[in-house]
Amino acid sequence: MTVRNATPSRSRRLLTTLLLTALLAGCSSGHDWNGKDISGLMPELAFELTDSSGETYRAEEGEGSIRVMFFGFTNCPDICPTTMARLKGAINQMPDSLQDEVTMLFVSVDPKRDTPDKLGEYVGFFGDDIKGLTGDEKTLRKLAKRYRTTFGYNEPDENGDYDVSHSSAVYVFDDEGRARLLLRSQLSRDEISEDLTTLVRETTG
């Protein structure tokens, strides 16, 4: 390609386009993911929350493993238990040697009702290796905003019970905490398991 006859501004635009193309090509993993590839589109995993033991848990404590993060609440009647079971089932379908490389993070956005004890009981139903986390509302809203999602509380009924609206999206971070995949609810266990297996092998291989 010859650009010597182009104007300086046109040459700069052409050079910028070529550089951006090269950068984007360099960032691509080359995998045909079932989930949405969000590499470079969202910030790295960062938070300071309270776990089901009542202790402070920071994102960096899970570095070295693939983190699968889902926002929900323990009184959720359908989306949360269905998603939790599908995620755990997908991990269980991975090769035995790779399963320990994946950590599930369940972040409750209902701190008023989801005490550490209740969180521990809830996540323990799905598996002993799932981290149940929560925090005050301000902290949770900041975390949700970081990953371009939100949640809300409906009006309580005569018994004081209320529902919580939230996204069903699941975020996957690699062993260094970089955002890699967004898993939508229509993905099957097999598809999720395939993506997680590929990601583990990529980061450990």
Rg, rounded, reads 20 Å
Supply the CATH superfamily name: Glutaredoxin
Oligomer: single chain
Q: Main beta sheet: strand number and arrangement?
A: 8 strands, mixed
Classify the fold: give the CATH topology. Glutaredoxin
The domain count comes to 1
Strand percentage lies at 15-25%
Q: Termini distance?
A: 38 Å
| Strand element count | 10
CATH class: Alpha Beta
Shape: globular
| CATH architecture descriptor | 3-Layer(aba) Sandwich
Structural class: alpha+beta
Mean pLDDT: 88
Helical amount: 25-40%
pLDDT < 50 stretches: 1-28
Write up this protein.
This protein is of the alpha+beta class. The protein has one domain (33-204): 3-Layer(aba) Sandwich (Glutaredoxin). Helices cover 37% and strands 20% of the residues. The protein has helices at 8-27, 79-92, 96-99, 116-126, 137-146, 189-204, and strands at 36-37, 48-51, 56-58, 66-72, 102-108, 131-134, 151-153, 164-166, 170-173, 179-183. It has an 8-stranded mixed β-sheet, sandwiched between helices. A two-stranded antiparallel ribbon has the order 7-8. Helix 2 (79-92) crosses helix 6. The relative contact order is 0.20. Mean pLDDT is 88; it is low at 1-28.
Topology:
Elements: H1 8-27, E1 36-37, E2 48-51, E3 56-58, E4 66-72, H2 79-92, H3 96-99, E5 102-108, H4 116-126, E6 131-134, H5 137-146, E7 151-153, E8 164-166, E9 170-173, E10 179-183, H6 189-204
Parallel strand pairs: 4-5, 5-6
Antiparallel strand pairs: 1-10, 2-3, 2-6, 4-9, 7-8, 9-10
Helix pairs in contact: 2-6
Signal peptide: 1-30
Organism: Halospina denitrificans
Family: Belongs to the SCO1/2 family.
